[in-house]
Amino acid sequence: MRIASVLLLAILASTCRAEDPIKKVFVDNLFLLELPIGFEWTKVKEMDADGVKARFYVAQKDASPLRYVLSVELSPRKDDPHRIAALKGHYNGLTEQLKQAKFTRLMVKEPTLKTPVADEVPFAVSAKTPDGQQVALFCVSIFKRNTYLLQCITEPADGVEDQLLQLAKRLEEPNP
Known about the structure:
single chain, alpha+beta, seven-stranded antiparallel sheet, 9 strands
């Protein structure tokens, strides 16, 4: 999921606000996810590498710095060893990309790797951009029929992580 981290770095100027009203959005027959009103998902990339199929989306609103990023791996991670591998990939991919992009002062809240692994696992990274701006990256790995990584980038603020986790818990997939 390193591509997800690269996409995330491309939109680091964004913010995430808890007070925006919510609406439901159904996308590509894959997922239904509540978002603040005015935000729409745009598919930015599809990939099929070594049998792993994934799609990447950004949700944004005109004239707003707010961005959400969602990566969807089109396969389940049903058991704990596979979920732990996905969590490590999401977290390590993000932190390595930040380091390669010359971000400094990384402070992390690592994902919990204890078993049984929950269906939604949050983690966060706070860092300084190369130009000295403080940013916080809030992420939730979500395990359903597909494997998701929902991300929001903002200035450090209270409540954002909780709001993102609540969005993650409401992610729905269509009936098979």
